[in-house]
Write a structure and sequence with these properties.
flavoprotein, Phe_hydrox_C_dim_dom, alpha+beta, globular, disordered N terminus, eight-stranded mixed beta sheet, Glutaredoxin, RIFMO-like, FAD/NAD(P)-binding domain, 26% strand, Phenol 2-monooxygenase, oxidoreductase, D-Amino Acid Oxidase, Chain A, domain 2, binds flavin-adenine dinucleotide
Length: 669
């Protein structure tokens, strides 16, 4: 035995009283649907159409799962807020099919310049060092910049043609009631929500949106809250929604969080920041680089944006007597900036957006409630400083984590109530520790720039890795299984990043069929499918080739796996079997491989895109996947990849029982 190497067009339903005015939503289809049915049944109700809500909704494209998103604002976010996409977030966009559009509009970050006070005691700042903005393990740019409104735009457009997903702007919930007596039955609609049209302008300039506050839980079985929003004469009658699940993606002042009696634990930080997007007229030489500027009077994080703009995060005040951010003026923020950047000048060409805020570093004590019928995602359960650019990224990643679990559950793929709950519980057990780590990191990160040590460049590299999400490792559960007989992975089993609970590292290979190169995460589109990825080694060798054939025959014929790996009628199989070999392509005959590796369908022909080779490509060079993943070319291994691109199990290459065990543990069919 080889040794195991574990290292309906969503309807943008406006308030009719707003439809005639130019609204941020004016380029979206408008249906003047003012008389919705008295009670509507949906599978999933999402409160909030920010980055988290839209990322969650994207999981349900192409399904018959009915999703309703409501947002109290009149249309998509017009400007401002987050900017900065980590490569792992871009992988999510790739899997949603919007990667190319997002990348085309984004601005790449290549270098980080650090500026500090003069060592000779003189006034002003000097450049200390320039660090490449690179995390070698990624093999691609670590971060790109695109403003939140455009990110939301792409995610929104991606769901526009799917009539199972509906969006209603200017709509907010005013009460929620969850009947916990029927939460264990799959097809029940225990969540009842009353919605109301909102005609007041609830768009705000920062994440602390105004929100209902006078809400409370009534008893252990049902919750019922009232939103603080006071209907006015223009409000339409309320609409009753029955849902199987409800998810609060409703931002830092989450209404749903209050209904669920979830409290945020943590602190307000002791500084007030200004954030400004402007076209600068400046003689500062690094104006088109990411810069950390540290002067005696404070620090600035400066980030280049598209359209010749830059964004600056500027701490304006710190200490005990802090001003209310609402009282800060633009001039005061710019005065603080000019003091820090002196002797260089900083005049204002034009300003597209600015805001002021006091950072809260807090995490919810629960991410799900009511037998996993209600969830909180994104800023609704964690807030931190925007300096590390984690807010939008983490919110999208939370949603990505939850989405496939809800999709699997709502498609009836999880066999028992207990298994459904076990799976949905992993949302909290996986994402809450990430949020807690993020707060701890955030505190250190703020200190790192306030008083950099001699190892600043090593520390910043570690920080960059952290913010990219490479250190995230989800704990063992039904969805993350350790090898049989092993309860904890020791350092010897953690050689590479190919480890249960970690994101599958991305790698570049070519398709066996036509030699076209692809990054693997681009190939792993968000279809809700698991992938059994067989790193078969050098299959020009007869032993490795026979092993791959035996595994393929077993998977395609096994009583417990056949129906999940082979295409059934029109439905995509729950599990896609993929092969990554490292033999010369000419020595491999794709069509001679077992059917599970290149299934045939009378409608769509052969599936040629399941077998990959780790070889040189004609134009893009060699991806060296085996080397990067530290997989022995003779030994190989099999990896179960979850629908969100995280590793569910790492097995010996021919451990088909291990594959069966994984799916039995998940209790899916
Ligand atoms: C000034 C500023 C700068 C920032 N800079 C960055 C950055 O550089 N990088 C980064 O990653 N992050 C940054 N962030 C944070 C980032 O904007 C948030 O973390 C991110 O938007 C969170 O996404 P979300 O979907 O969870 O919440 P939100 O974006 O807050 O979306 C919540 C949505 O819910 C809606 N809503 C709220 N209450 C209700 C209700 N009762 N009923 C119906 N709808 C409701 C809101 O209208 C909103 O559309 C910044 C934030 C601010 C304020």
């Amino acid at each position: 035995m080889p040794t195991l190497q574990v290292p309906g067009t969503p309807r943008c339903v406006h308030d009719k009283h707003h439809a005639s005015t130019a609204s941020p939503c004016s380029d979206y289809p408008i249906l003047h649907n003012m008389s919705p049915p008295a009670s509507t049944k949906v599978d999933l109700l999402i409160v909030g159409a920010g980055p988290a809500g839209l990322a969650l909704a994207n999981w349900f494209r192409g399904t018959n799962i009915k999703v309703l998103i409501v947002d109290k604002k009149p249309g998509p976010t017009p400007r401002g807020q987050a900017e900065g996409l980590k490569s792992t977030t871009n992988e999510i966009f790739d899997s949603y099919g919007i990667g190319p559009q997002v990348t085309a509009e984004s601005w790449r970050l290549e270098e980080i310049a650090c500026w500090g006070t003069r060592k000779d005691g003189g006034e002003g700042i000097v450049r200390e060092q320039v660090i490449p903005d690179r995390v070698a393990e990624l093999g691609k740019p670590r971060e790109t910049m695109l403003q939140q409104s455009r990110v939301e735009h792409h995610m929104l457009h991606n769901i526009l043609s799917h009539d199972n997903i509906e969006i209603r702007y200017s709509t907010a919930p005013i009460s929620v009631d969850v009947d916990t007596s029927c939460v264990h039955e799959a097809d029940t609609f225990p969540v009842s929500v009353s919605l109301e049209k909102v005609t007041t302008n609830t768009n705000t300039t920062n994440g602390d949106t105004t929100n209902g506050t006078n809400c409370h839980a009534t008893n252990g079985h049902h919750i019922n809250g009232q939103n603080g929003h006071q209907p006015n004469e223009h409000d339409a009658p309320s609409d009753m929604i029955s849902a199987k699940y409800i998810v609060g993606c409703d931002g830092a002042r989450s209404w749903l969080r209050k209904q669920l009696d979830v409290s945020l634990e943590g602190d307000l930080t002791d500084s007030v920041f200004g954030v400004v997007d402007l076209v600068p007229k400046s003689n500062f030489p690094d104006i088109r680089r990411v810069c950390y500027l540290r002067a005696a009077s404070g620090t600035i994080l400066l980030v280049p944006r598209s359209n010749k703009e830059v964004r600056m995060y500027i701490p304006v005040e710190s200490g005990t007597a802090l001003p209310d951010p609402k009282d800060l003026t633009f001039d005061r923020v710019m005065d603080a900036a000019r003091k820090i950047i002196a002797p260089y000048t900083m005049e204002v060409g034009s300003v597209s957006w600015w805001s002021a805020y006091r950072v809260r570093q807090r995490v919810g004590n629960h991410f799900s409630r009511l037998n996993e019928r209600a969830f909180l995602v994104g800023d609704a359960v964690h807030t931190h400083s925007p300096k590390a650019g984690q807010g939008m990224n983490t919110s999208i990643q939370d949603a990505y984590n939850l989405g496939w679990k809800l999709r699997l559950t709502l498609r009836g793929k999880v066999r028992s109530s207990g298994a459904r709950q076990d799976l949905l519980r992993t949302y909290e057990s996986e994402r809450r520790p990430v949020a807690l780590d993020l707060i701890a990191f955030d505190k250190g990160f703020l200190k790192l720039f306030a008083a950099p040590s001699a190892q600043f460049d090593t520390e910043i590299l570690q920080a960059l890795k952290f913010t990219t999400g490479l250190s995230i490792r989800y704990p063992p559960s039904c969805a993350v299984q350790l090898p049989k007989g092993i309860e904890q992975l020791g350092p010897s089993l953690l050689k590479a990043d190919l480890v249960p609970g970690k994101r599958l590292p991305d790698f570049r290979v070519v398709y066996q069929a036509d030699g076209v190169p692809t990054w693997m995460h681009k190939r792993l589109s968000a279809t809700g499918q698991f992938r059994v990825m067989i790193f078969a080694g050098d299959i020009s060798d007869s032993t490795a080739s026979k092993r791959l054939h035996d595994v393929g025959k077993y998977l395609g014929e096994s009583k417990s796996l056949k129906h999940v790996v082979m295409p059934q009628s029109e439905q995509e199989p729950l599990v896609e079997v993929l092969v990554v070999h490292c033999a010369e392509r000419d020595l491999v005959d794709l069509l001679a491989l077992p059917e599970v590796y290149r299934p045939w369908s009378d409608e769509s022909g052969y599936d040629f895109w399941r077998v990959f080779a780790d070889v040189e490509s004609v134009h893009d060079g060699h991806g060296k996947a085996y080397e990067r993943l530290e997989i022995d070319r003779q030994v190989g291994c099999t990896v179960v990849v979850r629908p969100d691109g995280y590793i569910g199990a790492v097995l010996e290459v021919d451990d088909v029982e291990g594959v069966e065990r994984y799916f039995e543990g998940m209790n899916v069919s």
